[in-house]
Amino acid sequence: MHGDGFLALLGDDGREALDALATPRTFRRADRLCREGDPARNVLMLLSGHVRITKVTPDGREVVVGVRGAGDIVGELAAIDDRSRSATVEALVDVEALEVSGSRFAALCQGDAQISWALVLVLAARLRDVGRQWLEMTGGSAIRRVAAQLMQLAVQYGMRQGDHVEIAIPATQAELAMTAAMSRESWARATRELRQRGVISTGRRRVTIHRPAELRRLAR
Question: What SMART domains does the database record attribute to this sequence (predicted)?
């Protein structure tokens, strides 16, 4: 799921260097790990749980721009350029993390090529994802947007069960709709149509993809 996350890319030496400076932290569901606009004080590496990344638009709306899970790093941008937080990070469930001060993390990146390269790979992957998501989520019908979103979630969080794929969804319907640049009503209608076609079934924060090939076709 997160095989290419920051911690997985560090290697043994990089992880040892990070662990030597890190402090274990625990956050409860709905805790804010950092707030948009606040000064940058620390960087967090997630060991378990999921967080959502949100930003406030110029007209005051809160928009979900991403979800991070075990192995991911958050808060790194503000630490690197010593600017204020660019987004708010909130725990979706209980979260365990490693915390390193922003100044120490910046020094690590400057002095350890393995750590800085791991960060470059993570940031490059996120830039690619932004471009792909923009194309997938802002074009085409509501069915296409939701299908593309579910395919992405299947890659990130899916577990294959025979011919089916089970996805534990780390967000609410409203949050998923915001990520797909849709109203909650449009997202619900598209999901209902996918259920009626037998492509998926849904439960509480869970989606089962019964016909992955059909969902992939609709996403295109």
Answer: cNMP (SM00100), HTH_CRP (SM00419)
Which amino acid does the sequence have at 72? D
Query: In 22-112, which residue ranges form alpha helices assigned H by DSSP?
Result: 76-81, 102-111
Sequence letter at residue 83: R
Query: Could you tell me which residues come within 8 angstroms of residue 76 by beta carbon, excluding any fewer than 6 positions away?
Result: 43, 105, 119
- The angle at the Cα of 64, spanning 126 to 215, to the nearest 5 degrees, equals 75
Go through the domains of the chain in sequence order and give each one's CATH number. Answer: 6-138 (2.60.120.10), 140-219 (1.10.10.10)
Express each pLDDT in 108-136 by its tens digit.
888 888 898 988 888 887 776 655 555 45
220: tokens are 């295109």
User: What confidence score (pLDDT) does residue 209 get?
Assistant: 94
The Cα–Cα gap between 45 and 216 comes to 32
Q: Phi and psi (nearest 5°) for 106?
A: -60, -40
pLDDT digits (tens, 9 = 90+) for 169-192: 877 888 888 777 778 888 999 999
User: Does the global pTM surpass 0.85?
Assistant: no
Q: Which residues contact 99 (CB under 8 A, 6 or more apart)?
A: 22, 23, 24, 25, 42, 43, 44
